[in-house]
């Protein structure tokens, strides 16, 4: 058995295979233990993977299968650029493999990608260690005594606190696995004058995810400076190579970066500005507690980073400082780098710079993988120079690590770093300290067994930490339960609509704000960092749900619903029929309703009405009433209703005094969801109610009791409004008098015609994004947005031909730059090949002459 294991270890490919398989097998076992499909009914959809990535992957698959345009999508809110979304969420080249995946197994495709990328992190870090520390001997084989430590450290990189917290952020993981190869490429570029690996890996990283690549590029500048000053000769040439190939690597991705910049400039991400005053989030001592084993991964808004890289690194970093065989020229810059990282996590200004001149919304310390990388490299250097460690070094290192853990627990926040995690980490530190001391004092024959024991303890610790803190799961059944039924209802909607033109669909019980991408329909809801912020502001002015990176149909009253062309509602409520909507069909307890008031994609509004409304947007109810009045309504569309209310902890009861259709709002609400139920059996749950939007209470009869409950036991007082049908219908009829007939519509083109009887502005419920070009009667015309959000154009009386064409902003210039950068790289490599060829031939001739 020992001989077989020895042969396996000595085989050239074995270490590389194990560097991949060790983290992979650990993660697979964790998934099996967590009941991940097909080993149970769960899946690893976590946070944004649940709400954004799975829907976006599904839409990407749909486009690849149907041949739809990759420039624009109508299944992303009111419509959205797809190139920028691809660049932000989907740009990994591996994602094109999804075309081989059945639609109902997109979740499993993403799961395999996550596990494969974690495993590849282990492999690429192992390759970095092999190159950086010259682990290949004269026989071109890996040093046997270095293989096991290298596998531990590569597994630590793959299962680090960063990966445990953010492995679900699938588009980041490409950069994490490429980073060690980029570092190999940088060292080859500087020391061996070989730029190929550096260019390819950095270009792939920037292409896959520009955001994490910003942090990598900042780090590369620091690391190049370190290499620059330790380089013995050719410093100027090294600098020129670094600058040139870095520029080319970044430029290759301009086909994605320029559209990204253009779209982000109109999103909520453009609002951040550099902080003028210095602020400390927390003490560095408290922050060090985030390196503890089995402490919960942090993804909140309080900026705590995830620093775990194995409890053994907390001992090895001190041994690195004390090690006599590691020069101070090597130690000082790396120790300063660690300190700088720790300060960067705690300081608001440095935090802002690291995150690409932007404050992250949750998911903090996104550069922590760089800190972990440096820490692990220092730890491995200590093992590599093990003979420079003395027994008293180990005792001091263990005491220092224990002291820091105690202090971090004392000064830290137990809600962020649990005391039990600190205690467990201290126990691991003691175990490692004992093993290290034994390695120093034990006979040579026992050292192999001790090294194997240390290996097992380290791998077990990393596996346990990943099991406790990473790969969180949710119910796959609950996520996919409506998929088949909704496909049936959407087909019924298509048949019901016939040839009646464009329409949108909404879901009263949505799972995510991207259900349109998940199920394949057009909607008025989106959650994306690339969302047009002006549309969100318009939604909020109409008392609908809106925020920095989302807008949502929640809160829609009949007039805004009609303006956004929402014709059908998916619902699990069997008693939702009313004067506003009609039941169309059902499928296994899910229902399809048709909104009785819905406008086409384009409709006319007088300039006077637009100006009057835009100048009167005060409070939100007032804004809705003003809009209706500008459109000819007499009186308020929503007016205060006379109702009695009684409050109890978590339950408000509203007694309806007369028949009508009712809405309610509230001033403050800390509960994240509210449930509305009537005594006639109608019920509806509203999520994200902290965002404040109008609550639909439905059609109520006199004497009906409406209960609004919350799980926070809050006592909330509501303002109740009754819908004035006459006022609403008057406003609706004004808009429906002059509408655009849709003649043709594709992903990137809209063609229609309209007979204008009274001059005004044609409004289309399409975001006024930069990429749209508008043609009226064949002549390019400037877009005049409605409320800065929707496409609009002033039209005079008469019949007009309307055409809209979309081209992703910056994509053409970006493509030209990308092609030019690639050609320049190839040309540079050709020149380099020619020069080296001539130099080599010249040297060969000199040698021949010398021989003769």
Fold and architecture overview:
It is a single chain. The chain has 852 residues and is α+β, with helices and mostly antiparallel strands. It is built from 29 helices and 28 strands. The protein starts with a helix and ends with a helix. 49% of the residues are buried.
Task: Give a short summary of the structure.
This protein has 29 helices and 28 strands. With 852 residues, it is α+β, with helices and mostly antiparallel strands. The strands form 8 sheets. It has a 5-stranded antiparallel sheet, with no helix packed on it. Strands 22-23-28-25-26 form a 5-stranded antiparallel sheet, with no helix packed on it.
Determine the N-to-C terminus distance: 58 Å
Q: Could you describe the largest sheet, including whether it forms a barrel?
A: 5 strands, antiparallel
User: What's the β-strand tally?
Assistant: 28
* Overall spatial form: globular
- Indicate the radius of gyration in whole angstroms: 31 Å
Estimated structural class: alpha+beta
Number of helices: 29
Strand residue percentage: 15-25%
Helix content: 40-55%
Provide the low-confidence segments as ranges: 846-852
Strand order of the largest sheet: 14-15-20-17-18
**Mean pLDDT score, rounded?**
92
Keywords summarizing the entry:
alpha+beta, 5-stranded antiparallel β-sheet, 50% helix, 852 residues
Topology:
Blueprint: H1 2-10, H2 14-33, E1 42-43, H3 48-66, E2 72-73, E3 80-81, H4 83-90, H5 106-132, H6 144-158, H7 161-166, H8 170-192, H9 196-208, H10 210-230, H11 235-251, H12 254-264, H13 284-287, H14 311-322, H15 328-346, H16 348-354, H17 368-384, H18 391-411, H19 419-441, H20 444-469, E4 474-475, H21 476-480, H22 483-497, E5 504-507, H23 515-519, E6 526-527, H24 533-541, E7 545-546, E8 550-552, H25 558-563, E9 566-571, E10 581-587, E11 590-595, E12 602-605, H26 607-614, H27 620-630, E13 638-640, E14 644-648, E15 651-655, E16 660-666, E17 673-678, E18 683-687, E19 695-700, E20 705-709, E21 718-723, H28 725-736, E22 741-745, E23 749-756, E24 760-767, E25 772-776, E26 779-781, E27 790-795, E28 798-806, H29 811-851
Parallel strand pairs: 5-9
Antiparallel strand pairs: 1-4, 2-3, 6-8, 7-8, 9-11, 10-11, 12-24, 13-21, 14-15, 15-20, 16-19, 16-21, 17-18, 17-20, 22-23, 23-28, 24-27, 25-26, 25-28
